[in-house]
Amino acid sequence: MGKLQTLWTLYYTFLKIGGFTVGGGYAMLPIIQREAVDVHKWAAEEEMTDIITLSQSMPGVLGINAATALGTKVAGIPGAMACTLGMVSLPIIFVLAVATAFEQFKDLVAVQYAFTGIRAAVAALILHAVIRLLKPTVKDIFQIILFAAAFICVVLEFFPMQYVLVACALIAIFYSLTFRRGKGSADR
């Protein structure tokens, strides 16, 4: 596949994802992962997990960060631009159209029920993303304990999310240096 064809495929793939996924970055994750790993084979499952992890730790919108990082991996800066533009093209048009008409229709019962249904679908997509991300990530007792501790800290709001992220990274580094020395590279 030529470079121009690759860029077009990246743009079109993320145009579909950005234009037809409701619920933000977490709802997009399973679709991005399916397209990148299963359909186009742009990344392995573990690489995609790393891209998503990196995307969550960067400022900005998760879906756009993931698209940009994947585009960079596949085709460098032009790939990043193609994915990012694809991700935002239809939402910008849609938001502009809806914003002009929403005030007139927001009190209609059908519109309120539609949003109730959309929220349920988004929750299902987010749960699917969590399950799919857990499979390649949590493999041994250390990772299970670290995941459980981080989950509890975030859900019960003991600490801000960014502190939990940094603490987990430091704990994992300490663990790998202390207990994994001599066993080769760290398990992924």
Helix count, DSSP H or I runs of 4 or more residues:
7
- Biggest beta sheet summary: none
Count of beta strands: 0
Domain module tally:
2
Residue stretches low in confidence (pLDDT < 50, at least 5 long) are: none
Q: What shape does the CA trace take?
A: globular
**Overall average residue pLDDT:** 88
Strand content: under 5%
Straight-line distance between termini: 31 Å
Structural class: mainly alpha
Order of helices and strands, N to C? Answer: HHHHHHH
Report Rg. Answer: 19 Å
| Percent helix range | over 70%
Characterization of this structure:
The structure is a single chain. The chain has helices at residues 3-20, 25-39, 45-57, 62-105, 109-137, 141-155, 161-179. The protein has two domains: 3-135, no CATH class; 138-188, no CATH class. It is globular, with a radius of gyration of 19 Å. 81% of the residues lie in helices and 0% in strands. The chain has 188 residues and is an all-alpha fold.
Features:
188 residues, mainly alpha, 2 domains, globular
Offer a quick outline of the entry.
The protein has helices at 3-20, 25-39, 45-57, 62-105, 109-137, 141-155, 161-179. The chain has 188 residues and is mainly alpha-helical.
